[in-house]
């Protein structure tokens, strides 16, 4: 039972007279009390309104928080507005090699560098990681390349070593190490929580609750494959678990196709399956010479293979997100509405797609600032994102601001990829979301009324 407190004193007084246990937590800007068992609810509810969640998890559920959570790791966002990619070696093996790899991964579009420092190996005689030296190497990448870093922590006692690590990974073997999860709740850095290899979705969400119930809401769930009898891969990536988790929980979801695959040729297809299923982040093992890697050599891919995988994954994400966005009535009705030149004063730039969608969102300003005049748009105008204040207030209203931003990003990308929209200065093109690509094909990018409705 979760109580939204409006009178803390009354709640505490009622709780002290009952046999209920409770914890107070401030999370996502709300102060709540979680009390159990549910049977005690009537006695306690005088101190606030309450929400009965008869499940082993509450704070991670959509009943508690309907809108998607965005976890921020440095300047990187993980959530519905983009596909975030962390890549790097299973284990850090050499500082110079790591810096070089980090630079090429960054060039290819990775958002974060992953690298194992303390490795949980099945046999104690396997390579157990470079420990603190690896953490120092990661810190160098972070300082020199500005890439946030993610690394696995094995036990609560080592947490002080991780002060320069931006996101802490909990591996599958520790997914139900409850004291570690509680310590991470107190440590208050973003957590990448892998699914225990034999855990149900419910157990996984309950594990996240150990972090959330200490006030740390920055948890990303990571599907890394589960043990399944007769599986053809090292672990079975539970593709269906991805949309299921998104339905049950507001927390962002990451997929780790590397550990599910166990062999490098399967990493790309599993990545694409995960993105199609709704993964918002990817964790991919990349090594400059996988064949000589000291751990997980069979599944690590080369930087070149990563570059190719990443461009396919991003293209697929655009497509999937476009489909998601298409379902949002509010946005669709906005796009269907005609926007005439005289409504925005855009002049020759009016025919550009971002202007048409722009309305009062600021996109029109960005659009107009770019290349007036006829001819293809050389570089699409940048997409203005809503200010955080505006976003917060829209989120409070329960609006679809995330979808809106994702959609605009998609358009932005389409403009860049295809030089899709011309500004001919003559016609104002109206476009429906469903016409985004079809219209392009029909008009060949010429942006006339017959091609684009
Ligand atoms: C890893 O990420 O290198 C790792 C050990 O992962 P998992 O806990 O999923 O096996
Ligand atoms: Mn590994």
Question: What layout of secondary structure does this protein have?
Answer:
Layout: E1 2-5, H1 8-16, E2 21-27, E3 30-36, H2 41-44, E4 48-51, E5 71-73, E6 76-78, E7 84-88, H3 95-108, E8 112-114, H4 132-145, E9 149-152, E10 167-170, H5 178-187, E11 191-194, H6 201-212, E12 219-223, H7 241-248, E13 253-255, H8 257-261, H9 267-277, E14 281-285, H10 303-326, H11 329-336, H12 341-344, H13 353-358, H14 363-369, H15 388-396, H16 401-418, H17 436-443
The chain binds phosphoenolpyruvate and manganese (II) ion.
Manganese (II) ion binds next to loops.
Task: Describe the overall structure.
With 453 residues, this protein is α/β, with parallel strands linked by helices. The protein folds into three domains: 2-51; 71-322, Aldolase class I (TIM Barrel, Alpha-Beta Barrel), CATH 3.20.20; 341-439, no CATH class. 38% of the residues lie in helices and 13% in strands. The chain contains 17 helices and 14 strands. The strands form three sheets. Strands 7-8-9-10-11-12-13-14 form an eight-stranded parallel beta barrel, surrounded by five helices. Strands 2-3-1-4 form a four-stranded antiparallel beta sheet, covered by helices on one side. α3 (95-108) crosses α4, α5 packs across α6 and α10 (303-326) packs across α16. The termini are far apart. The protein binds phosphoenolpyruvate and manganese (II) ion (MN). Manganese (II) ion (MN) binds at residues 90, 259, 285, 295-296.
